[in-house]
Amino acid sequence: MPPTIALDLRYLEAAYRNSPGGGLGGMGVYSRGLWHALARKRPDWGFLAVGDRGLVPSLFRETVDASTAAATIVQRGLAGSFPFPLRLAETRCNWLLHMLESELGWGNPLSGLPTAVDVLHGLSQLPPARSRKTPTVTTVYDLIPLGAAGNSTPSGLARVRRRYLARIGRADRFLCISESTRRDLLSLTDICPSRVRVVYPGIEHATFRPVHCTPDELRDRYGIEPPYFLNVGVCFGRKNPRALLDAFSRVVSAREGREASLAFVGPYHVIPGSAQRIEREANALHIADRVKVIGDVGEDHLARLYTNAAALVFPSLYEGFGYPALESLACGTPAIVSAASSLPEAVGPLGRLVDPRDPADIARAMSDRLRELPAGRLDVEGPEWARRFSWEKTASACVEVYEDLLS
Predict the structure, then answer these.
(1) Rounded mean pLDDT of the chain?
(2) DSSP letter for each residue of 25-88
(3) Which one of 3.40.50.300, 3.40.50.2000, 3.30.428.10, 3.40.50.720 gives the CATH number of domain 215-386?
(4) What is the pLDDT of residue 107?
(5) pLDDT tens across 367-390, in order?
(6) Average pLDDT over every residue of 163-189
(7) Would residue 216 be called left, alpha or beta, if left means φ above 0 and alpha means ψ between -120 and 50 degrees?
(8) In CATH, what is the architecture of 4-202+390-406?
(9) How many angstroms separate the CA atoms of 136 and 375, rounded?
(10) What is the model's pTM?
(11) What is the mean pLDDT of residues 55-84?
C-alpha cells in the first residue's frame, strides 16, 4: 500500500493569509515548492496538508488542490479552535500555541487524522510532539532562533521560546537548506551528524527568468526608472538596512551614481513600521528622493524588477539560504551579496561578495556595477547557475529520506 506523508504547511497557510498577493517568505516559498514537486515525483503516494483550524485562504487551497488529487487538507492544532488562539496565532507569539501542542499534547496536529500517517515532515521548523510514534523529518532553514545570527542572550519570554525551539532535536531526520545551516545546527545542538543532510531548495524557473521592460513600463508600473538597485524581502534588523542606505548615499554622491535609485520590494506590511524606518533613514541621509519602498508584489512583477535592475544588493548579516540572490541570477541580473552565512553558496562564482558591516565596501561594488552598465548582465550564466537548484532535486532527496525511515 502506498505510504501517506503529512506535511505541516501551517506557515504557508499563514503566509497566504497575511500576504495574499505577494511575498510568502523563505519558509512559505520552500513549503509551496516542495509540496508541488513531491506530488509530481510520487503521484502514487498520499499527501496530507496540515493546516490550522478556521477559514482556509483560497490561495492555500488552490496550491494544495492543484498538485494532486491524492492530497487532503486537514485542519488541526489550537489556532482557530476558538477566538483567543486565532488572535494569538496572528501575532509574533504564535509559537506559544505550538509549544502547548507539542509539549502538552493539546490540539496535537497529528491527533485524529483521517488516515494513518507514515511520515510527518515539519516545514515550520518547530519541535515535533514530545510523545509521538510517527517518524518525523524537520526542514531546518536557519538557526537564528538559537542565536546563530549573533543576537544577544534572550530574557523573559524570549528565553522560554529559545529553550522550546531547541527541542527540535527530537526529530528523526534533519534537512538543512544550506551547508551553512548544517554547520550551525551541528555547532549549536548535540544532534548526531548522521541524522543531518543538506538539501538545497529550488526556485520557480518558469517565473524567474529574464523579463525585460522599457523604462516607460518601469515608470508607469512601479514608479522607478533605470538605473536602479534592488533589495528584496523586508529590509529590517539583520537584513542590514542602515549599511545599505549608508552605502547608497556614498554612491549617490559620486559622479556615476547621480542618476541611480534604490528600490525596496517585499511584504513590509507584516512588520509594522519597517517601511517608515527606511524612509526616515533615507531622509536623514538626504537621499529620500532616490529611495522608493515599492512594497509587496507578485512573483511575475518581481521577475521584471529583478531583470531590469542594475543589480540586487543584499547585504544581509545572516541568511539560511538567500532566495533573492538566486532569483536575481536566474533573471540574468548580478547580485551583490554578503560574504557571510549561506549567501556565497547561493551565488557561487557569479556573485560579488562584500563585507556587510562595511558600507564603503558595499558602495564600491555598487559603483563598479554602474560604471560597467549597460554591459555586465548574466543572461546566460545566471540562469545556467540557477538551474542547479530545482524543486525536483529537492523532492527526490526528501523521498529518499522518507523511504529510509519507512524501510
Answers:
(1) 88
(2) HHHHHHHHHHHHHHHHH-TTSEEEEEE-SSPPPHHHHHHHHHH-TTEEEEE-SSTTSSHHHHHH
(3) 3.40.50.2000
(4) 58
(5) 999 999 999 999 999 999 999 999
(6) 90
(7) alpha
(8) 3-Layer(aba) Sandwich (3.40)
(9) 49
(10) 0.90
(11) 72
